[in-house]
Each structure stands twice: as structure tokens, then as C-alpha cells.
Amino acid sequence: MNRQESLGYLVSHLNVAIANELDQRLKRYQLDIKLWPVLFALWQEEGISQTELSKRCDVANYTMTRLLDQLQVQGLITRHQEADNRRAFQIFLTDEGKALEQDLIREAERVNELFMAELDSTEQETLMQLLIKINRL
């Protein structure tokens, strides 16, 4: 098997390229690619626990703690202690975190457009459907 026949290689190579492009765009906002999944998840639903956020972002809880510390220092999130569990926190976006949504989503859309430009609209739709199917989302 060569690399053009390896799904793992092709997906990994594309993932690195997309992540690098998005990371460069996020740096304009003093952010990096590690923080993207957290913000993206919170824009979809805030007030979830750190544990739930870790699951949604597919990172270990201790890693999520560091990411949330970074976002809190930047003034983009707050943690609110859950009433029934003093060790658990709900995560909320600050106004500053909410204000970034439109700009950062647009940056991500531009990255998508850049990487999908070689495909016509039917191919783009098919690719997305196949990726969803393979990922079992």
C-alpha cells in the first residue's frame, strides 16, 4: 500500500494541513488551535460541565483544565460552581468569548472553502456525507 491508498495517511495529512491553516488565522486573535474545539463546543452549548466538555472535545479532563485556565486568563470563559457538587463547574462564555463567535466561525468557513475549492458542489456534499458516515456522527 502506498500513501495514496491509505485512508489514515490521507485523513491525517489533511487534518494537519487544515489545523495549521486555522491555527495561523486564530493567532490573529491571540488564540491557537488547541482552544478552537473548546470555544466551538461552548458556542453550541454553554453551561455544560468540564467533564462533559472534555468528552465533546475528546481531551482528558486534566488537559481541559489547562485549556479552560488559558481561556479564563484571556477573559473568554467563566466557571460557575455547580450547586449540588462543589467540585464540579459549569463553563460559560463571557461577553468577549461570545463576541468572537462570528469572526472565528467565518475564519473556519474560509479554511473550509480553501480546502474544498478543488471540488465542485456535488463533490463537496458527497465528501461531507461520506466523512459523517465514516465517523458515525
TrEMBL record:
Annotated PROSITE patterns: HTH_MARR_2
Keyword tRNA-binding: no
Limits of the HTH marR-type domain: 4-136
Sorted UniProt keywords: DNA-binding, Transcription, Transcription regulation
Pfam families given in the database record: MarR
Protein name: MarR family transcriptional regulator
Originating organism: Shewanella jiangmenensis
